[in-house]
Amino acid sequence: MTPGLYEGGGLMVSDDYACVEGTTYYYNGYGVTECRACDGDFELAELEAEISGCDSVMYMGCVEGCAKCDDCTSDTSWSAAGTGYEKKVTRTCDCGYCDESTAYRCAANYYGSSANGTSGCTKCPSYNGLAGTSSAGSTSASSCCISSGATYSFSDTAGSGTAKLSSTCCAS
């Protein structure tokens, strides 16, 4: 930082024109303004001043702030991203630019993993016409189950009828 003259005739090390509320402290005849509030688009930041005859002095000063972002809010829940897929978008404001990243997972009744929301998820297998179910985000086929008590129709050489699963059946 280039020193400037201050009213008392000495050198100002931190000539902070954006500071609207602060106190000036003097070190070996050099003035440093410790700022508490900044004007307009400026923000408070910790700064360092090199002062002859002293070690460096840390102080709060005003720096030009970043532009704010409009509509830069992350998703709060997962949403559909095509059959068998869900997505969640995380957004962060970086000086006026809204950076976003998208995470994908398999939807309920699917398993696997996906980096793009178009491949990697497989529908849960079925048994005797009963569809396997899983929670969203399941990564393994063993997460696909048919609940006990589910009924299904059968037909074999001995005849036909309905049967009920006596226990939960999960894929392996």
Main attributes?
172 residues; mainly beta; three-stranded antiparallel beta sheet; disordered N terminus
Folded structure, characterized:
- By secondary structure, the chain is mainly beta.
- It has two domains: 4-64, no CATH class; 66-142.
- The chain has a four-stranded mixed sheet, with no helix packed on it.
- The chain has no helices and 17 strands.
Summed up:
The chain has 172 residues and is mainly β. It has strands at residues 4-5, 11-14, 19-27, 30-38, 42-49, 57-64, 79-80, 85-94, 97-106, 110-112, 121-123, 126-127, 130-131, 145-146, 151-156, 159-164, 169-170.
Any low-confidence stretches, pLDDT <50, length ≥5?
Answer: 1-9
Q: What is the alpha-carbon Rg in Å?
A: 33 Å
- The portion of residues assigned to helices is under 10%
Strand content: over 45%
Q: Overall mean pLDDT score?
A: 85
- Strand line-up in the sheet with most strands: 1-2-4-3
Largest sheet features: 4 strands, mixed
Query: What is the 3D shape?
Result: rod-shaped
Helix-strand layout with pairing:
Layout: E1 4-5, E2 11-14, E3 19-27, E4 30-38, E5 42-49, E6 57-64, E7 79-80, E8 85-94, E9 97-106, E10 110-112, E11 121-123, E12 126-127, E13 130-131, E14 145-146, E15 151-156, E16 159-164, E17 169-170
Parallel strand pairs: 2-4
Antiparallel strand pairs: 1-2, 3-4, 5-6, 7-8, 8-9, 10-11, 12-13, 14-17, 15-16
